[in-house]
Design a protein that fits this description.
Elements (H helix, E strand, L loop, with lengths): L2 E6 L6 H10 L4 E3 H11 L1 H11 L4 E2 L2 E2 L1 H10 L1 H25 L5 E5 L14 E6 L2 H11 L5 H9 L4 H7 L2 E4 L6 H12 L2
Parallel strand pairs: 1-5, 1-6, 2-5, 6-7
Antiparallel strand pairs: 3-4
Helix pairs in contact: 2-5, 4-5
Length: 195
C-alpha cells in the first residue's frame, strides 16, 4: 500500500515548487483545489447546498460564480468552515477512491492549502508543510495577483489556519524561503516517510 503524503502550507508558501518535484519523481499527486472545483461543478448535492446558502447567483450559466463564493468566503472566517463542510467531505471521498488506483505505488500525495482544516489529516500517513516567511508570501502573492490589494491578500491568508499552528501539526516541514535548497529537503522527506 502506498504511503500517503499530505502536502500543505499557506497561500503563497510555494507548494507548487514541491508539487512539481514530487511529480517529477513519478509520485502521483491529487491536487485538492483542482478536484474540488471539478466536484463542485458536477456534484448535484453540493450545487444544491451552495444554491440554498448563497442563492441562484452562485451558479451562472451552469458555472460556479467564483467571485460571489470568494466574497462570501473572505467576508467572515466562519464562512470558510461552512463552505468546507459542504465541499470537502465529497472531495475526501473522491481522494480515497483515487488512492485505490495508485495503491501499488510506493508513494502518493495530496496537495491542499487547507489539508488539516478540511479534515484530510486522517486520510494521509504524513503531513508535510511547506513554510515561507510572511513577507515573502505577501511578495509572491502580489506578483501572482497584481489586481488584489494587500488587504485582500491578507484576508485570504487570515482565512486559513495560522502557519505556526499548522507547523506544529505537521510531521515534516520544508522551508521555501528562496535561500534553502528545496531538492535536498524533498529527498529528506522521502527518506523520512520510509522510516
Amino acid at each position: 500500500m502506498a504511503i500517503k503524503i499530505g502536502l500543505t502550507g499557506g497561500i503563497g508558501c510555494g507548494k507548487s515548487v514541491v508539487l512539481h518535484l514530487l511529480s517529477a519523481m513519478g509520485i502521483p499527486v491529487y491536487i485538492a483545489d483542482d478536484e474540488a472545483k471539478r466536484i463542485t461543478s458536477t456534484d448535484p448535492e453540493i450545487r444544491q447546498k451552495l444554491t440554498d446558502l448563497l442563492g441562484d447567483g452562485v451558479f451562472l450559466d451552469g458555472q460556479l460564480n467564483k467571485q460571489l463564493l470568494a466574497t462570501f468566503l473572505f467576508s467572515d472566517p466562519d464562512n470558510a468552515k461552512i463552505i468546507n463542510n459542504v465541499i470537502h467531505p465529497k472531495v475526501k471521498e473522491d481522494f480515497i477512491c483515487w488512492t485505490l488506483k495508485y495503491k501499488e505505488f510506493p508513494y502518493i500525495a495530496i496537495e491542499s492549502a487547507i489539508l488539516i482544516e478540511a479534515g484530510f489529516a486522517d486520510a494521509v500517513d504524513i503531513i508535510a508543510m511547506v513554510y515561507a516567511p510572511m513577507d515573502l508570501r505577501l511578495e509572491r502573492l502580489a506578483r501572482r495577483d497584481a489586481s488584489s490589494t494587500k488587504e485582500q491578500i491578507l484576508k485570504r491568508i487570515q482565512s486559513q489556519m495560522d502557519d505556526e499552528e499548522k507547523r506544529s501539526l505537521a510531521h515534516f516541514v520544508i522551508l521555501n524561503d528562496e535561500k534553502a535548497a528545496i531538492i535536498p529537503q524533498v529527498i529528506e522527506l522521502m527518506n523520512f516517510t520510509s522510516l
